[in-house]
Amino acid sequence: MENDLTENKDPFLQRAIEYWLDSANELGYQPLFCEWLISKGYVLKYSIKNTNFEQGKDVLAVNPSGVPHAYQLKGGNINLNRWRTEVKPEIEAMIECCIQHPDIDKNIEHISYLVTNGEVEDAARVEIVALNEGKWKQTPLRIWTRGDLLTGFQGMADGILPRDAQTYKELIDFIFSDGTGLPNIARISTFFSQILNVGNVTAKKEQRRRDIAGAMLYATMIAGPYRKVENYDSTIRIMTLLLSLIFHVVDKYGLEDKYWIESYRIIWNDIITAAHLLEAEINTSGFETAFVSPADKDLVPFRKHSSVSILYALKLSEFINRDGAWKSILNPTTAKNYRESVVLWGEASFIPYIMIICIFKNFEQSKVIASEVSQTAISDILLLNGRNSKHPFGFLPPYYDIDFAVRLNLGILESEFEDTYTMGSHLLKPFIEILVRLNGREFIAKNWQEISYMHFEEFVPDDAVDYYLWKIPNGENLSIFPKKEKSWRELVEESSKYDGYGLPPTLKRFPAFMPFFLTVFPHRADSKTVGFLYMVSNIN
Q: Are 97 and 56 in contact (CB under 8 A)?
């Protein structure tokens, strides 16, 4: 790995990267490793881990000269026993098996690398040297260890240092998080926005490319404590936030694909990989093991809800991409476990219902489930937020997160909560529009009188590209009062017009991202986003 370091590096940042690298496993540093390759002019062909198809090749890239390079990534030190029992069989497969990729000529010999953030101990290294001089003489194995990775990753930080003392403090707090809870998305969003120069209209496109690489560096470091304890839920939320802000930069400043699309693929692969690991863990051991020993048993239902929200996002994303893995949601035991883990703590908690509906609406045998879920959502909102509600404040609006709901539920807020949200709702209108599409005329007619006493809350940004932001700087809060009487035809016409108009282009370009986006950004669930998601999840 070439020497990327120059003089006058920031010593704290260098040490922070070193601390993170020493704490990471191979899955933890893999996204940044891929980004480093891209920054050196390599074309990434795939980045994969824990499948039966890798043939020893976790990462495959083509260097600027057109030579394919294959990488097997490991975490920690490699002694002789580990080399012989775990690593060598994978290396043999990597060296001896031709690369199976449509863009690569099988006749071109690839260069093979063993990469680890630890060290290769002397006995193992001696055996590798012997193999390179004998059996592997024509295609010797190359090794990158901790020092090589550290040099490369520290070099990526050049020119993207935190800009003030407060940002430094934020980074320290993030890096030394215990990783067992949910991340503070609002704080991390502010940090990422600074690294990405979100408000800087004068930055050149090459600078934007470097900003994106820098944001990936910091995101990987911030996600490190969560990866270390296998808190996949939180890891996914951090990387989804990062991708959303990158989309904002892309659409706001008109970045062509060459400046960012490879970074997108790395982050998206990381999100999906982590989601599959979460799915495997929950399906094997149950939701109680999907997070590390919560301090209070009262937190368990909320954490289960958070995890199942990610799983529903994964299933709908797979469905949109026509990935047959979505069908696991049809398993009766799986479906039951998932449904029973949904806890309604506020309007943001209804997002999994939207995911269920978008899948099940496509099949005659499950349309009734989609309709029932829609009706349940509407009934629950009317019960807690309607004119006859006895609840002190109704469902929390979707801009309140699960952490706030936990603290409110446990009575540990720093100040008394006196707000009330009865008679209004952000999610009622999208659910009514869903049920109209499902031909739920009888239910809506029966409940319209109560619905007509509500006001539909909606925030409309001045600029569509601001949908990606955690907090939108400019826009209009709307309170829409439904008519006391409304024809079915009117409802059908209104519901059919939400097909993605008014949404930013990159969000529509990658619709499979939308389920994760709404899971992390539930306050962006409105007629536009929900209507678009409903449309792109149609199988016809």
A: yes
